[in-house]
Amino acid sequence: MTNQTYETEINMAHPTASSSTLKLLGGIKVEVAAPSACVTSGGAGKSSCGSSAGPGDMPPEIWEKVKNHPCYSEEAHHHYARMHVAVAPACNIQCNYCNRKYDCSNESRPGVVSQKLTPDQAVKKVLAVASEIPQMTVLGIAGPGDALANPKKTFETFRQLQEKAPDIKLCLSTNGLALPDYVDEICRYNIDHVTITINMVDPGVGEKIYPWIFYNHKRIHGREAAQILTERQMLGLEMLTKRGVLTKVNSVLIPGINDRHLIEVNKAVKARGAFLHNIMPLISEAEHGTVFGLSGQRGPTAQELKEVQDACMGGANLMRHCRQCRADAVGLLGEDRSNEFTLEQVEKMEVVYDLDKRRAYQQKVEAERAAQAAAKAAALDAQPVDDGMKVLVAVATRGNGRVNEHFGHAHEFQIYEVSGSGTAFIGHRRVDHYCQGGWGEDDALPSIVTAINDCHAVLVSKIGACPRDELKAAGIEPVERYAHEFIEKAAISWFAEYRERLAKGEIVHQPRGDAAIRQGARVAA
Amino acid sequence: MAYKIVSSSCTGCSACEPECPNQAIIEKNGTFLIKPEKCTECIGHFDEPQCVAACPVDKTVIIDPGYPRYAAA
After folding, report:
1. Which residue in chain B is spatially nearest to A114 when comparing CA positions?
2. How many structural domains compose chain B?
3. Is beta strand A93-94 parallel, antiparallel or unpaired with respect to A212-215?
4. What is the pLDDT of residues A125-166, one digit of tens each?
5. What domain range includes position B38?
6. Has residue B51 been placed in a domain?
7. Which of B13, B31, B32, B41 best tests the A interface by mutation, with the highest count of A CBs <10 A?
8. One domain, residues A48 and A183
9. Which residue in A19, A36, A256, B41 has a CA-CA distance of 20 to 30 Å to A96?
10. What is the pLDDT of residues A259-310, one digit of tens each?
11. Do B18 and A92 touch (CB under 8 A)?
């Protein structure tokens, strides 16, 4: 079962909707039924997800920690925003997929920032963003180097925030080399989410990924470096698990180097108590100037990524909604509003940290989430019998869990696998905007088709005549009739219709091909 | 000789700064520099110069020929 499934079920146990009509994000009025509406039977036994973890595996205290965390909960990522503050520029290891000299404002990938901050500047920025964006619930320190290779700056930022913004969840991301030394401090500042990037558990694999580490005042190379790194990562993970800190493991899938090996990684981290495993595609382009970029090491295709992710189901819970954000990203995942909050702009802002306003907003979101779960359950109940067929659909959304983006304005599509027994979020695909200032850009269309080529349909709020015809010609059905509905409900309803049309012989089911995972910067902004 | 940092290739990441046993490294205009009079090349402290070992960019921390080699007392 995926996260979204147990969220559905835990929502059932903790109904939050309390009013019948609510004005929600973006001014859309939504009918929300009485609290009993979210108590449905939709979750149990209706999931198409393969992980063995069920709602019983998640105690209420862990649910409390993850339910509003966009990086830990697929469902939450539609509603809640995160921000990263770039207070940690130094790193203590070198990875072949990372080049710290590169910075481009169009570029979105880990390790990249436009402006590094002191702890005081970072705290000011967090308070400014939190008052502008009430759905910002999570603050992370993810670099651009390693959070724990800059312990003074990292923990000073956390110390101040714990005082000034007590409702914001704090998290950090690390390569794990220094982790065992800082577990006490992590617990002292109530950091209840830690992400460790673990790409291998075998130094023979590790030496192909890490040329060197800086450890105990020495630069150590090759297999010895990878041996120390993996020992420190495993020790750190075990220590965090013992202290009850929720730990996510990130792994970069590097075809030909660690693809099959990640199944071993998944088992090793699951055995040591990792809560989530996030397998991400390598981002690799010569223009990034990384060792892998320059050597021509390619990233995986969508199918290669999904195959490894699927092979890991049943181990640690898998996360598939990661957007591989920059270390100074601000906003919902997949969105970056960091340009609105540069140092200069933050200096000019009058910041009033209104905790009550933030809580009121978050309560509205909870009601919306309950309605979303109820809509999904109702759509599932109306499904014909599961015949084992599974298809992928692409969805254009601008957040809130709804099909609410115009095809031409989408800068990413979310991909769901639909079957007769439910939906599973399987990833997202970045694309260039098709629509530029009101005109469709024909150059962008083939790349969008390539990005969602494994999908049978694309659900959008609206689409122009020209891309509609071209998508149809490519065998992808453009669907507008579920505009502004909840995504999962829309996907399930579309699939029910699709199977009806098949049954009537109106259409013939054709298998789809593979899709490309977008590399590098957006070319059309 | 002391070590020096080639400012054009310094990323300003600060990895070197806390490693220096002599507090010889300071930040200036977003990059870092070594005060040569304080640099001991880590002789007597560590087996290898810490700023060189920690720096992520090759050939960024180099020997400064303008300064005589430090000799541990």
Report:
1. B11
2. 1
3. antiparallel
4. 888 888 888 888 888 898 788 999 999 999 999 999 999 988
5. 2-64
6. yes
7. B13
8. no
9. B41
10. 999 999 999 999 999 988 889 889 888 888 889 989 999 999 988 988 998 8
11. no
Buried b / exposed e along A290-312 (16+ C-beta atoms within 10 A): bbbbeeebbbbbbebbbebbebb
pTM exceeding 0.90: no
B19 touches chain A (CB under 8 A): yes
Q: In the structure, what pLDDT confidence band is assigned to residue A48 with cuts at 50, 70 and 90?
A: very low
Asked, for residue A134, whether it belongs to a domain, the answer is yes
Instruction: Give the number of A-B residue pairs with CB atoms closer than 8 Å.
Output: 48
Task: For residue B17, list chain A residues with Cβ-Cβ distance below 8 A.
Answer: 90
Which residues on A lie below 8 Å from B56 (Cβ)? 91, 94, 100
> B13 and A90 in contact by Cβ < 8 A?
yes
For A275-289, A409-423, A461-475, A511-525, which range has the lowest pLDDT when averaged over its residues? A511-525
CATH code for the domain in which residue B49 is found: 3.30.70.20
Q: Predicted confidence band at A68 (pLDDT cuts at 50, 70, 90)?
A: confident
Residue B60 lies in a domain: yes
- Sorted by sequence, the CB contacts under 8 Å of residue A299 that are 6+ apart come out as A253, A255, A281, A282, A283, A284, A517, A519
Residue at A395 is within a domain: yes
Cis omega (within 30 of 0) for bond into A255 = no
Could you list the beta-strand ranges (E) of A390-494. 390-395, 412-419, 422-430, 435-436, 439-440, 457-459, 477-479
- Measured in angstroms, the CA of B49 and the nearest CA of chain A are apart by 9
**Residue A397 pLDDT > 80, yes or no?**
yes
Is residue A12's pLDDT more than 70? no
The range of the structural domain enclosing residue A505 comes to 385-525
In a domain, B70, yes or no: no
Q: What are the beta bridge partners of residue A31?
A: A21
Is the domain of A236 the same as that of A341? yes
Residues B15, A94: C-beta atoms closer than 8 Å: no
Contacts of B19 in chain A (CB under 8 A): 217
- Find, among B71, B70, B6, the residue nearest to B34 by Cα: B6
